[in-house]
Amino acid sequence: MSRPVVLIADDDEEVALLLRTYLKPLDCEVIVARDGEEALAVAQTRMPAAVLLDVMMPKRSGWEVCQALKAVQRTSDIGVILVTGRGDVKDRLTGLQVGADDYLVKPFDRNEVLKRVRNVLSRAPRERAEAAQAGRTALEAMLLDRATALPTLPIVLDRIKELLIEQGELGMVFIDIEQFEAIEAEYGWAFFDELLSNVGQIVAVEAKERFTNPLVTCHRVGGSSFYIFHETRGQDLSEENASERLANDLRQKLIDTTRERFPHMHADQIGFFVGSARIDYRPQIRLERQIYAGMQTAADAVRDAEQQRKKQLTRELRDIIRRKRVTTLFQPIVRAREGTVFGYEILTRGPANSSFRNSDMLFSFAREAKLAWALEAIALEGALRRLRTVDFSERKFLLNLEAEMFGESEFRIHEMVSFFSENRGHFVFELTERAAIEDYAQFRELLDEFRGKGIEVAIDDAGSGYASLEAIAALSPDYLKITKGLVSTLAEEPIKQDLVKMLVDLAGKINAKTIAEGIETQEEYETCRELGIDLLQGYYLAHPQEELRLGDEEVAAALR
What is the CA radius of gyration of the chain? Predict the structure, then answer.
């Protein structure tokens, strides 16, 4: 069995000699470093079992060296004893904060040194280290991004910290997919995950070609973003606008390659925000904070582009509203047991050659741009015009309306209600709560008026947001529309299945039917049927269509 290695880091030769002498009874290999940089380099290469660090050393203090060792997974198990003549409470707390395992205050005696070093050497048995490594391996597998198979930040964070310490600085590139919400809403989450996977592959390839020792991580918070961390050694960014040119070149490469791989997507749907930043190592600041601050700086670098994009979209939306350039679509809703068409949800989208082809994108951006009422007015007008030409047969038609509309005096739906009441039994108001209903009793009275005219009521997004159990109980809707967030990956997640079962049971108690929206895979379709959901809707069954061409035979063919 090899002897343990102990590193003594002290610029005072007499202190180093004294400690070496004290350690002789331990039968260990002793190495001496004269300053902080040498101590860190030796520790990283020799991986000693223990390090005795003088706090006040040239080049790097013992606190800095300790922080650097403890911040990186590979060296974090090295036992660190800070050795100093400063022993007040503040200094002891500083040692604790940087991760020191113990603290020796000068002057010290032989027995005290032996006792503390023995304690540190005995704290890391092989079995514990192997168990910790096995646990880390399992955890890393869980932290891989499911769509791209790229590591998320927690997996590569230690390596990033190590590079930052070694290099003294790191470069960083932030990449975000433009219109990611609209793309997912239009094509579905399954396609969007495929797109993400391809973008991740492109980013990884481009990173290797453009940067030294790049680390690519997928960072998906409220969207789909990627970060490239890379060495800056040998990269000349001193020239004015060099970083901007690099970002523009990478952005164009991503656009061109993605368009080649997904030729059926509209060209203007594919875009990327790209920004860059640099992290300069500052030992007095916690490493994680330095890295996250750099990530924020890189993300902030694209804000101007995003703001310009929003201004352009607002102008485009105002033009659509002014010229009433919207189209009414019908998405089939299918009976789960019989596989026959129950009815249609009435949707509105913008022009085919615009940024607002998708209904979700159109209405969500209208709310953000304070144009929701104007858009809803022309959407209702267009829907009513189309409905006047439709043969209703035995079908139901669901029209999505925000609950807030009913409290706005300037927003009038009298013509729509009148038309619905003339065609009793065919229409359902699908209520979406973007803000909480303040007076359920008063709102219930309004809904009862609609029911008296033969109009049924559905609660949208049941299982999320404001569509709470309180709202469901207070309004007693005829339909509960289960949010696509619960339907997505339903077959794989027991917790989601339990929530859906609860909503199915609740619907049964209030004599309502359940509708599952956003079904995109066979597994989701089958699981919804097994859980007792009454009605199904989603791309797996049929996409929205301008004409009511889909019949029961076509549905049966799609499900075979």
Answer: 32
